[in-house]
Amino acid sequence: MIVFDENIHQESLMKDVARWYRGKVLSIRDLRPGTFIKDEDIPHLLQRHKKATFVTINVIDFWRPTLAHAHYSIVCLSIPNDQVGEIPQLLRRLFRLPQFQTKGARMGKVVLVSKQRIQYYEVNRRSIQTVRWPD
User: Fold this and answer.
1) Which of 42, 43, 63, 112 is most deeply buried (CB count within 10 A of its CB)?
2) d(Cα 45, Cα 47) in Å, to the nearest integer?
């Protein structure tokens, strides 16, 4: 399951991802309909929906070591608001890399994706790993 943050849950982006991703593609609002969801509530909500990959451009609030948890992953995309249309392609490229290819490989990781590189840390390993995009 891929869960888009409310600031990027545009239907067109989610449909583009759903074309190639075999699981569910949802907005965070779909996990708790009819309520306002604060950023600090999202990790708890994700824990109830095991194996979810949360996607956001809110790097400031979600690229923190305290958020890593074995039941979910967080992908922070470091791109400006005017480039959110590139999210489906960035996710697809990320999910092709061995470290992120399967749900099992992604779980427990918090990932920071930029156009230059990928950084991530894991639940049991707080040191930040860096991966360069393949050519």
Assistant:
1) 42
2) 5
Least Cα distance to 5 among 33, 35, 30 occurs for 30
Report pLDDT digits (tens) over 69-100.
Answer: 999 999 999 999 899 999 999 999 999 999 99
Residue with tokens 């999910």: 95
Of the candidates 22, 23, 28, 21, which has an alpha carbon nearest to the alpha carbon of residue 4? Answer: 28
pLDDT at 8: 86
Using the predicted structure, report yes or no on whether residue 3 has a pLDDT greater than 80: yes
- The answer to whether 63 and 45 are in contact (CB under 8 A) is no
pTM: 0.94
Residue among 93, 108, 96, 98 at smallest CA distance from 54: 108
79-83 long-range CB contacts below 8 Å, 24 or more apart? Answer: 79/114, 79/115, 81/57
Which candidate, 51, 46, 65, places its Cα nearest to that of 111? 65
Residue 52, φ and ψ in degrees, nearest 5: -90, 145
Element (H, E) at 2: strand 2-4
